[in-house]
Amino acid sequence: MSYQIRTPQPYAGNPFGFVYGDALTANAEGAVNVHPISYDAGGVTVAANVYTPADYRAEGSYAGIVVGHPNGAVKEQAAGLYAQRLAQAGFVTIAFDAVTTGESGGEPRNRDIPFLRVEDYRLAADVLSTFPGVDASRLAVLGICGGGGYALSAAQMDKRFKAVAVVSMFNTGSVRREGFVKSQTDSVLKRLHDVADLRAREVQTGELTYNANMSDMDPEVGHKLPFDMYREGYEYYVETHAHPRALSRFAQRDLMDLFAWDPDDFMYLIDQPLLMVVGEKADTAYMSESAFAAATATEDKELYVVADATHVDLYWRPGMVDDALAKLASFFGDKL
């Protein structure tokens, strides 16, 4: 699959727009390099970054890893951090912006449609498999947060992925349908009827309705959000690792698709080696535990717990991220 060189958009003093710790600021010979690219997704342009290891040679043979970002995030945040660090471990990696997100095209913006999000991973695999030096028979997938749920779905059907890993996996379908920690199970049908009414209104107005964007919240509201994940997410996306293209919103009509999607339903189709990394104190841990238990077709699986870490700690916090990455590098090195 063909791709083109893309000119990166600087932000916050970083020429590539990265906001994660120890991010690249320039490409140098003999070091990890980043290659901004774009490619076509059915008439929509996808923006991505390919990271190559130190002393990379186009005529070499490298395992490749597709890295997907959390919901509401962009490739310049946690996905870029993991992609860069895994390139330091010797892999060629690709971090992309989901269609309708970040620098990628697609209208209307900021959609969360499972089919599109899963296809993002397949397209990234198409591109990575043709990148010079990448051995197409040694591809893996890594998804973070909501991207982890979609990565699991991608691996269930796409057996080009020879190893599967997720970090702080977030089951978007389950949470939208049943609520966080299943706190809204008694209102599923009412909320579906509400979405139907909303879509009917949108037909008349021609405007989509979105959920509240964290960037628009007052700090006193953001710091009092329910659940640690949401409070720490506010701090990450608005205060410590903000990026202007990272919008924590999605079109409310997408709930019709999200209510009917759940990666747990088809976990029995994962027969590849599986690593699920979760924080010891993550209030989302139950999602990884559920998916892990449902992965009955593979005996080569591990639920790896990072001590003291919360869900969002594994996006950025030194030490905890180092722990997760050491485990991931060992896993991918062994399985690929």
Q: Can you put this structure into words, describing what you see?
A:
The protein is α/β, with parallel strands linked by helices and 336 residues long. The chain has a single domain (4-171, 212-248, 262-335), classed as Alpha/Beta hydrolase fold, catalytic domain (Rossmann fold), CATH 3.40.50. Helix content is 35%, strand content 18%. It is built from 11 helices and 9 strands. It has helices spanning 78-88, 114-130, 146-157, 172-178, 188-205, 219-222, 228-240, 255-258, 285-294, 313-316, 320-335; strands spanning 4-5, 33-41, 44-52, 62-68, 92-96, 134-144, 161-167, 274-279, 301-306. It has a 9-stranded mixed β-sheet with strand order 1-2-3-5-4-6-7-8-9, with helices on both faces. Helix 2 crosses helix 3. The longest helix is centred in the middle third of the chain and has 18 residues, at 188-205. The chain is globular. The mean pLDDT is 97.
Chain-wise SSE layout:
Layout: E1 4-5, E2 33-41, E3 44-52, E4 62-68, H1 78-88, E5 92-96, H2 114-130, E6 134-144, H3 146-157, E7 161-167, H4 172-178, H5 188-205, H6 219-222, H7 228-240, H8 255-258, E8 274-279, H9 285-294, E9 301-306, H10 313-316, H11 320-335
Parallel strand pairs: 4-5, 4-6, 6-7, 7-8, 8-9
Antiparallel strand pairs: 1-2, 2-3, 3-5
Helix pairs in contact: 2-3
